[in-house]
């Protein structure tokens, strides 16, 4: 019997440790394991794109979707968003072969900017001087000045940003001005060598997004595949451009299907309301358990506290992205978690009434309630699995917290409660003990 | 047991409620949210005084994105429903609402869903409902595979399914009336609520059937069994715990409804109704039905 008591003590200490971890990891300016809040609670943007994979050969679709995700992820990271989520979804039976890309940007409420940033493809081109004698085009602007059309003086080459291996930011050692160093891949190096060889003494214009940003004069052939763009960049501009060049072009075209922004204030009040509902829900359940089941009810409340500590720490450690629906799932799982206790205690009560001693009634109650507990939990778990699979992110959050809740409760409501109840059997079989184990609120 | 003795009353009550629910669905119809049909929902809050609704409606008439629906929300906000908007149209909408920047506002929520996304979600929802129902039917069949006399196990399964339909139909009927009165719309969370009700309410029925199963087994001589007496006794033994288990869930659901976030209010209400009728039906519908089936069987 002392073994059970020591075990119960160990569980209590462990649970206190978990509870302390949950509390401690939420403190301070930089919590080590903060709860991860979903967009609807934190505020932010949610974008769904459709990827057009019709031009991609069948076997390579999943690879090109992964490549797409990587490119978008790099672009999003450039934006400095904390914990963005970029995921690929679809294909196959459920979504009728439609491939979607889902981008979650917590804290970004400027939709226009976000969409622009994701859709932007930097177009890098190298152009050479048009042959002599090409007629100069010019237009007269509104103020009557003659403007030369520079573009007509250059013709495109095969060399584009496609052949770029890497771009990096450097500073001119003399002027300290930022410049961008380009390194081409093998094909690009050959092309660049050819272009520079044929155009010694002439201008090779570097175009970005259709506008010339740098028009250096070639002095000699460059066989190394390296080029430098020195425009009048600010360091920030140069850094962004390097990032954009490195993130590359999209492997598949995408179109925006749906978009959502949630203001941060709305999210904040939803969190507060969720916490309030959870606390009140817990108090109501605790009150009910103690009024109806007395001492075992109190033990069940302790188990419920352990259940909550385990759940919250799992949310932090896995981590689970909490949405309003996820919080709802957690709150409901508190109600379901004590179901097993209710089934057991009602059974124990019955056994006591039929004349058994407390020592006999407890194990009988546990073993006879097991079938019903198993069956009802299986149906909840099955429903959660299907919901999780059905899920948009909103529903996944609900199914995940509910399913986890049911699983954890099997441990907290059965194993832990049982250990605690057998640890307090020193009360004996007297009248007082029977009073504590029989329930209130009913005959 | 009075429930078994007066089973006709309870069966008729359930039948009336279900019929009313189905009628209300057909008469009022279900308002579908933008999750499923596509469209845009914009929610703004004005920093100063909220402009009059008819002024804004006048301004929105000249917009390029067709008819819009304007609803006041909160103290200083409006909710605008329209077809799905491009970024340019979205900007135009905000410009009109702020009267070209004269009335400062913040956008608290904007959601634009293309029709193809809605179609896909509808498909998924239908598949999920079918799958959950099938899984639960299989599960019931499995749980009652060993009970076969005097009522065969597939009849238990059939009754459990009928009870489930009852548990889903009544909350949906309530929702239709709510949607009529308060403009609630059928969204993703509604489907989740229905599926969760399916999962939770079946367990209640199982708890009681489980007791009947146990009591039947403990009787040595099957020929002597008074079936309706056994069912009545099982009900008496288990209705307290059946109510108690549901009550704990209903307590947290009510707390979620009254104090929880606005976005899950209808969700909590749907689940509360589902849990309530799930418990009601496992006591007042499933067991009386079982006795009715057995009586019919005997008459043959």
Helix content of chain A: 40-55%
Query: For the CA atoms, what is the radius of gyration of chain A?
Result: 33 Å
**Structurally, how many domains make up the residues of chain B?**
2
Say what the CATH topology of the largest domain in chain B is: Multidrug efflux transporter AcrB transmembrane fold
CATH architecture of the largest domain in chain A: Up-down Bundle
Strand content of chain A: 15-25%
Taken from the alpha-carbon principal axes, the silhouette of chain A is elongated
In the CATH hierarchy, what is the class of the largest domain in chain A? Mainly Alpha
Question: Strands across the major sheet of chain A, in which order?
Answer: 3-4-2-14
Q: Please name the fourth-level CATH homologous superfamily of the largest domain in chain A.
A: Multidrug efflux transporter AcrB transmembrane domain
Secondary-structure element sequence of chain B?
HHHEHEEHEHHHHH
CATH homologous superfamily classification of the largest domain in chain B: Multidrug efflux transporter AcrB transmembrane domain
Beta content of chain B comes to 5-15%
Query: What's the level 1 CATH class of the largest domain in chain B?
Result: Mainly Alpha
State Rg of chain B: 25 Å
Instruction: Supply the CATH architecture of the largest domain in chain B.
Output: Up-down Bundle
Protein structure class of chain B: alpha+beta
Mean model confidence by pLDDT of chain B: 84
């Amino acid at each position: 019997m002392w073994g059970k008591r020591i075990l119960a003590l160990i569980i209590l200490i462990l649970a206190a440790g978990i509870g302390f971890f949950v509390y401690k990891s939420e403190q301070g300016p930089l919590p080590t394991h903060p709860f991860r809040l979903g967009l609807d609670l934190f505020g932010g943007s949610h974008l769904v794109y459709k990827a057009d994979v019709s031009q991609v050969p069948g076997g390579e679709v999943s690879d090109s979707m992964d490549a797409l995700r990587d490119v978008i992820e790099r672009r999003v990271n450039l934006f400095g968003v904390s914990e963005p989520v970029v995921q690929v979804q679809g294909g196959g039976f459920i979504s009728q072969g439609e491939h979607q890309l889902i981008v979650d940007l917590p804290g970004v409420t400027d939709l226009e900017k976000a969409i622009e940033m994701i859709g932007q493809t930097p177009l890098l081109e190298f152009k050479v001087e048009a042959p002599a004698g090409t007629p100069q085009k010019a237009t007269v602007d509104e103020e009557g000045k003659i403007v030369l059309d520079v573009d007509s003086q250059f013709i495109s080459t095969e060399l584009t940003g496609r052949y770029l291996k890497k771009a990096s930011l450097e500073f001119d050692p003399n002027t300290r001005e930022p410049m961008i160093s380009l390194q081409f891949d093998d094909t690009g190096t050959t092309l660049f060598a050819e272009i520079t060889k044929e155009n010694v003494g002439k201008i090779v214009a570097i175009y970005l997004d259709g506008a010339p940003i740098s028009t250096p004069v070639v002095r000699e052939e460059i066989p190394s595949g390296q080029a430098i763009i020195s425009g009048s960049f600010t360091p920030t501009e140069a850094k962004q451009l390097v990032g954009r060049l490195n993130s590359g072009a999209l492997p598949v075209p995408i179109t925006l299907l749906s978009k959502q922004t949630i203001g941060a204030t709305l999210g904040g009040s939803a969190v507060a309301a969720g916490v309030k509902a959870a606390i009140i829900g817990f108090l109501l359940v605790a009150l009910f358990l103690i009024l109806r089941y007395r001492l075992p009810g109190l033990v069940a409340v302790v188990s419920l506290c352990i259940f909550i500590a385990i759940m919250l720490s799992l949310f932090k450690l896995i981590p689970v992205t909490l949405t309003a629906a996820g919080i709802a799932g957690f709150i409901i799982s508190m109600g379901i978690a004590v179901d097993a206790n209710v089934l057991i205690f009602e059974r124990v009560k019955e056994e006591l009434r039929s004349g058994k001693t407390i020592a006999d009634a407890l194990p009988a109650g546990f073993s006879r309630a097991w079938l019903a507990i198993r069956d009802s939990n299986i149906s909840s778990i099955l429903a959660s699995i299907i919901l999780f699979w059905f899920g948009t992110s909103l529903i996944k959050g609900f199914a995940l917290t509910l399913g986890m809740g049911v699983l954890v409760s099997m441990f907290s409501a059965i194993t832990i409660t049982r250990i605690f109840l057998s640890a307090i059997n020193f009360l004996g079989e007297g009248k007082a003990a029977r009073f504590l184990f029989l329930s209130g609120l009913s005959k | 047991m009075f429930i078994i003795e007066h089973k006709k009353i309870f069966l008729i009550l359930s039948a009336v409620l279900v019929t009313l629910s189905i009628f209300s669905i057909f008469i009022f119809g279900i308002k579908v949210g933008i999750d499923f049909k596509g469209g845009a929902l914009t929610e703004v809050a004005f920093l100063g005084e909220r402009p009059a609704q008819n002024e804004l409606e006048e301004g929105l008439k000249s917009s390029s994105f067709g008819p819009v629906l304007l609803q006041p929300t909160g103290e200083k906000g409006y909710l605008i429903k329209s077809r799905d908007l491009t970024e340019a149209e979205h900007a135009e909408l905000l410009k009109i609402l702020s009267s070209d920047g004269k009335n400062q506002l913040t956008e608290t929520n904007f959601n634009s869903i293309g029709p193809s996304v809605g179609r896909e979600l509808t498909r998924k929802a239908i598949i999920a409902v079918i799958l959950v129902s099938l899984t639960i039917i299989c599960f019931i069949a499995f749980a009652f595979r060993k009970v076969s006399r005097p009522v065969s196990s597939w009849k238990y399964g059939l009754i459990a399914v009928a009870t489930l339909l009852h548990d889903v139909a009544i909350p949906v009927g309530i929702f239709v009336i709510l949607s009529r009165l308060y403009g609630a719309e059928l969204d993703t969370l509604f489907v989740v609520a229905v599926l969760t009700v399916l999962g939770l309410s079946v367990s209640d029925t199982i708890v009681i059937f489980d007791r009947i199963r146990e009591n039947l087994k403990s009787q040595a001589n099957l020929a002597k069994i008074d079936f309706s007496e056994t069912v009545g006794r099982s009900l008496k033994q288990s209705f307290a715990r059946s109510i108690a288990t549901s009550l704990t869930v209903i307590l947290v659901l009510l707390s979620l409804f009254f104090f929880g976030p606005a976005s899950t209010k209808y969700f909590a209400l749907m689940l509360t109704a589902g849990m309530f009728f799930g418990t009601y039906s496992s006591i007042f519908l499933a067991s009386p039905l079982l006795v009715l089936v057995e009586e019919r069987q005997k008459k043959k």
